Amino acid sequence: AEGFAKTDEYMNEHGNLGSDITVTVTMVDGWITQVIINGPDETPSLGAILITIIQPKIIEYNTFELENYVDAIAGASETFEGIKEAGLAAIDQIIAASE
Prior knowledge:
The protein is an alpha+beta fold. Helix content is 41%, strand content 28%. It has a three-stranded antiparallel β-sheet with strand order 1-2-3, covered by helices on one side. A hairpin with a 2-residue loop joins strand 1 and strand 2 (19-28). The protein starts with 6 loop residues before the first strand and ends with a helix.
């Protein structure tokens, strides 16, 4: 992911058990610098908590592969899969646009 000379921001959506999750990713020089996760219909005690916990971890670890953090929130695995799928698709768009 090295070699990005610009900031790229892409949004991707994932439908998840009747709830849409939107993930916007900003990368600078191959690093995730901002992630905005919007899941307005997520269950407050499950998906909404996961979003709050996972957003800073994605930036800290520069990846959406954070299954260990999801295991701590039983019942939020579908939300995580939606976040991960949308986030990885956004990164794929960023890489494709930079080539």
